[in-house]
Write a structure and sequence with these properties.
This protein has ten helices and five strands. It is α/β, with parallel strands linked by helices. It folds into two domains: 2-138, Rossmann fold (3-Layer(aba) Sandwich), CATH 3.40.50.2300; 145-205, Orthogonal Bundle (Arc Repressor Mutant, subunit A). Helix 2 (36-45) runs parallel beside helix 3 (62-72). The chain is globular.
């Protein structure tokens, strides 16, 4: 039996996932987590075969949680579930150690296939993601500017583009205003831009936020 930790802050999503798993004979939703700290705590206290991890968790984001899980439980496969398209986060998730990446509009059959595959120690890349990964590797030198950002810088850039003030971002990420301002300056430098408006235009143009 494949024991699964479902990590998502939306009750309706967790219930939907549990219903899908209940229709299988070889999987069980062993526990649930509603935020990043909850995921880390549950993973340290119970044994799981797979973690289904939402990339947009409250508090610590999914990529931060993924990296800690990889450090503390290197053999525990993590399947990222996200409302964001593959172009936006899949490469970052795979680089951070995810065993696979699925968008939340994927068919339930694909989810089951992905869980079975990563629980056996393999990676799961859907057909479209595998094709995009091949193109990405082939044309790495042509990758977009935002690929040069760290995961935290990418997160801060998207928050700036969504209209959040530096103080608000700091409170949400539990970081000082000075630290966020430093991130902003570093982001502008790497993106070769001078204003928040330019950043916002880029983020929207490249569909990095919903």
């Amino acid at each position: 039996m494949i024991r699964i930790l479902i990590a998502d802050d939306h009750t309706i999503v967790r219930e939907g996932l549990k219903q899908i798993l209940a229709e299988t004979t070889d999987m069980i939703a062993a526990s649930e987590a509603v935020n990043g700290l909850d995921v880390i705590d549950k993973a340290s206290k119970q044994n799981f075969d797979v973690v289904l991890l939402d990339i947009s968790m409250p508090g610590r984001n999914g990529l931060d949680v993924l990296k800690q899980l990889r450090m503390e439980h290197p053999h525990l496969p993590v399947l990222i579930l996200s409302m964001y398209s593959e172009e936006q986060y899949a490469m970052r998730a795979l680089r951070a150690g995810a065993a696979g990446y699925l968008t939340k509009d994927s068919a339930s059959e694909e989810l089951i296939l992905a869980i079975r595959k990563i629980s056996s120690g393999k990676k799961y890349l859907g057909p479209s993601l595998a094709e995009k990964l091949a193109v990405y590797l082939e044309h790495g030198e042509d990758k977009p500017l935002h690929e040069a950002l760290s995961d935290r810088e990418h997160q801060v850039m998207c928050m700036i583009a969504s209209g959040k003030a530096v103080k608000e971002i700091g409170e949400e990420l539990n970081l000082s205003v000075k630290t966020i301002s430093t991130y902003r300056a570093r982001i502008l430098d790497k993106m070769r831009m001078k204003t928040n408006a330019a950043l916002t235009h880029y983020v929207i143009q490249n569909q990095l936020i919903e």
